[in-house]
Amino acid sequence: MLGAHPIGAALHLKEFEGRLRGGSGIRVESVTAVTAAFHESPLAAGLTADWLVADWDDVETWATTVLSFEDGSRAVIAASFAMLGGIRNCFEVYTGNAVFRARMTPSDGLMVYSPDPAAFGDEYLHEKAESRTGWIAASPDEDWVRGYPQEMQDFMECIATDREPLSGLQLARDVVDVIYASYESAALGQTVRL
Question: Which of 74, 164, 183, 189 is the 20 to 30 Å CA partner of 174?
């Protein structure tokens, strides 16, 4: 399912929140999800240009999942590969005293604009950019924004200090559980308890 990375981020934040409160991680209780294959929708029918990804078979290209946690907070995960504007992965976590909102991809830390497609020359702007005109979320250091150096740092520290990774095997299992529950929810059209 689309959205594995923002699902993992939300679960990681709730795990961390629970530990900060002196307990164990705050777990997901239930999942409500909807999915769509935009390339098969009436919106894509009859387009003269192939703007949407259309070569995927039997797979969603858009998904939204609401995670309900045992403390009553919610996370709203939205992900798409085949929407105009390029890849989008974002999440929102609402708690009793805070809201966390992140645009993971594309990161909007640097927005650039030009009506001229040649304005930026051959400079890389971001993954899967459909156009080089208008507003573009440029990624001056995409590896850092996506956390690759931080991931390697954590990996090396785990080896050097014999500790568990910040995002370990339990998080991976939980993400897979949420993804499977999301598929079930979308197929049944109802909330699925974990």
Answer: 189
Helix axes 169-188, 4-20, angle to 10 degrees: 120
Residue (of 133, 83, 122) closest to 106 by Cα position: 83
Structure-block tokens of residue 52:
């949407």
Residue 89 makes CB contacts below 8 A (sequence gap 6+) with 2, 3, 5, 6, 78, 79, 103, 104, 105
HEC assignment per residue over 29-43: EEEEEEEECHHHCCC
Domain count, the chain: 1
Residue that the structure tokens 């050097």 belong to: 160
Please say whether the beta carbons of 154 and 148 come within 8 A: no
How far apart (Å, rounded) are the C-alpha atoms in residues 175 and 181?
A: 10
Give the residue numbers spanning the domain of 13: 4-193
CATH of the domain at 34: 3.30.360.10
pTM over 0.90: no
pLDDT of residue 31 exceeding 90 = yes
| Residue 56 reports pLDDT greater than 70 | no
Output DSSP code: residue 72.
S
